[in-house]
From TrEMBL:
It catalyses: (6R)-5,10-methylene-5,6,7,8-tetrahydrofolate + NADP(+) = (6R)-5,10-methenyltetrahydrofolate + NADPH; (6R)-5,10-methenyltetrahydrofolate + H2O = (6R)-10-formyltetrahydrofolate + H(+). Transmembrane segments: none annotated. GO terms for molecular function: methenyltetrahydrofolate cyclohydrolase activity; methylenetetrahydrofolate dehydrogenase (NADP+) activity. It comes from Pelotalea chapellei. It comes from the Bacteria. This is Bifunctional protein FolD. The gene is folD. Residues 138-279 form the Tetrahydrofolate dehydrogenase/cyclohydrolase NAD(P)-binding domain.
Length: 281
């Protein structure tokens, strides 16, 4: 049976380190600050934003929240981003996605200063990652890399198969694995013989958004499986992109859903904010 990679425990360890880092900076007169901007009433976004606020509070990070109405204009949002870009108390800015249709998301993400881009979505930071000189790294893939590191998984020369090529998970995690000398294959909806590609992998990273799509017999004996997917089935149950029970029979280590990658995302947001504040110091 596979070892269960405990995301909650790894996140708790990293958060303790972050809290210590925050205290150290505070002694030098700097309080790391994160601005979180929410536009509209999307229930999932509201939950994420309140989780982020709570996490900041627990880590001693100053959090500044802006809850704007769903009919906010693009110009007003851009003006707020500009104000936050110039606010010395703020070291990280996060605009919660999705934005309402009257607002051009790309325009807003590009208006955030690359030096305060806590989500790492600005093309400048995407470019820095792809040339191997990262500044801000996107939180979920960054969390995946920390989990692998904490589990002692050395990617050097390994076959990594990433399923999914989104800008927020698949592509950046592939870049990060490449930077650690893995041989990386990125799969997507047009990939032929996906099962056969996945069977080659020493490490499988699934970020698709399809419940239990990755079957147990796709997993090579002893592979490490990281399941980024979060899929709601029925009223309450959450499952990943991997058939956990079957994959556990073959993998050497696997992340559960929930309790795997999920807790790492906000942790890395706190980490990015702390690192940004350290840079200004
Ligand atoms: P996207 O919908 O943006 O991307 C999904 C990717 O999966 C696309 O590249 C798509 O291919 C690919 N795909 C879809 N169907 C198939 C298929 N049948 N075979 C192979 N590839 C396929 O999703 P995200 O990257 O935003 O998120 C992925 C999952 O991760 C979701 O479940 C999401 O909820 C979860 N997530 C979890 C987070 C966490 O904190 N734990 C954070 C972010 C996401 P194509 O490009 O060809 O369309």
């Amino acid at each position: 049976m596979a070892k269960v990679i405990d995301g909650k425990a790894i996140a708790a360890k990293i958060r303790t380190e972050i809290s210590a880092g925050v205290q150290e900076l505070k002694q030098k007169g700097i309080t790391p600050g994160l601005a979180v901007v929410l536009v509209g009433e999307d229930p999932a976004s509201r939950v994420y934003v309140s989780m982020k606020e709570k996490a900041c509070h627990e880590a001693g990070i100053f959090s500044d929240e802006y809850k704007l109405s769903a009919d906010t204009s693009e110009a007003d949002l851009l003006a707020l981003v500009d104000k936050l870009n110039n606010d010395p108390k703020i070291h990280g800015i996060l605009v919660q996605l999705p934005l309402p249709p009257q607002i051009d998301t790309e325009k807003v993400l590009e208006a955030i200063s690359p030096l305060k881009d806590a989500d790492g979505f600005h093309p400048y930071n995407v470019g820095r990652l792809s040339v191997g000189k990262p500044l801000f790294q996107p939180c979920t893939p960054y969390g995946v890399m920390i989990m692998l590191q904490e589990e002692g998984v050395d990617l050097n020369g390994k076959e990594v198969v990433v399923i999914g090529r989104s800008n927020i998970v698949g592509k950046p995690v592939a870049m990060m694995c490449l930077a650690q000398n893995a041989t990386v294959t990125v799969c997507h909806s047009r990939t032929r013989d996906l099962a056969d590609v996945v069977r080659r992998a020493d490490v499988v990273i699934a970020a698709v958004g399809r419940p239990e799509m990755v079957k147990g017999d796709w997993i090579k004996e002893g592979a490490v499986v990281i399941d980024v997917g979060v899929n709601r089935v029925g009223e309450k149950k959450l499952v990943g992109d991997v058939d956990y029970a079957a994959a556990s029979e073959r993998a050497s280590a696997i992340t559960p859903v929930p309790g795997g990658v999920g807790p790492m995302t906000i942790t890395m947001l706190l980490y990015n904010t702390l690192e940004s504040a350290r840079r200004t110091a």
